[in-house]
Amino acid sequence: MNLLVLLLVVAPAIAAEQHPPAPPIHEQTITVSAEALAGLPRVKVEAKEHDNPTATYEGVALGAILERAGLPRGEKLRGKALSAIVLLTASDGYQVVFTLADTDPAFTDRQIILADRKDSKPLPEKEGPFRIIAPSEKRPARWIRNVKKIAIKTVE
Ligand SMILES: Nc1nc2c(c(=O)[nH]1)N[C@H]1C(S)=C(S)[C@@H](COP(=O)(O)O)O[C@H]1N2
Ligand SMILES: [Mo]
Predict the structure, then answer these.
(1) Is 78 left (phi over 0), alpha (psi -120 to 50) or beta?
(2) Ligand 2 centroid to residue 139 C-alpha, Å
(3) Which of 95, 133, 143, 147 to mutate to test the pocket of ligand 1 (most atoms within 8 A of CB)?
(4) pLDDT in tens, 14-36
(5) Ligand 1 test: best mutation among 98, 145, 148, most atoms within 8 Å of CB?
(6) Which ligand is nearest to the CA of 89?
(7) What is the pLDDT of residues 113-128, one digit of tens each?
(8) Whose CA is nearest to atom 24 of ligand 1?
(9) Which residues have C-beta atoms less than 6 Å from ligand 1?
(10) Residue of minimum CA distance from atom 6 in ligand 1
(11) For the whole model, what pTM was predicted?
């Protein structure tokens, strides 16, 4: 066997060893409700929107909801999962997208919270009952109010 043949045979085998096939993404839609948050670790963040005073929002990490729904995290978030998107829809039809990797603390320290409380009270009607808060984002345009659905989709 010459060197070229050896490389052609062995290199793909080594590559497969290091990168076993990524698990498929289970496309699904989660209805946002108290049950979707129940039992998950509570997170508190301080966030400032436009000229409003800084508020304390409390809820759960969006990533924790997705993890409980069976979506891959950390080392398993590979391959096709890196093109998976998290599409959030509000009662007024407003929609925003994050990527699945954006929601994983193995990838980023930037938090994305699904909040149900603001300054120790349920969210005001204009914002709630559930709102996304991403304190590290300088514009609050993805802090979608009245969020109703979380859809996980893969893009072609
Ligand atoms: N459901 C919903 N959430 C929303 C929006 C919206 O139109 N609908 N606007 C976004 C934008 S553009 C901003 S800047 C912030 C704050 O919007 P407000 O200033 O109208 O409260 O909410 C975000 N969340
Ligand atoms: Mo905005």
Answers:
(1) beta
(2) 7
(3) 143
(4) 555 566 677 789 999 999 999 99
(5) 145
(6) 1
(7) 999 999 999 999 999 9
(8) 144
(9) 49-50, 90, 92, 94, 140-141, 143-146
(10) 94
(11) 0.89
Q: For the segment 126-146, what is each residue's pLDDT rounded down to a tens digit? A: 999 999 999 999 999 999 999
Furthest-apart CA atoms within the chain: distance in Å: 73
User: How does pLDDT run across 47-98, given as a tens digit for each residue?
Assistant: 999 999 999 999 999 999 999 999 999 999 999 999 999 999 999 999 999 9
Under a CB-based contact definition with an 8 Å cutoff, are residues 28 and 68 in contact? Answer: no
Q: Is 128 helix (H, G, I), strand (E, B) or coil?
A: coil
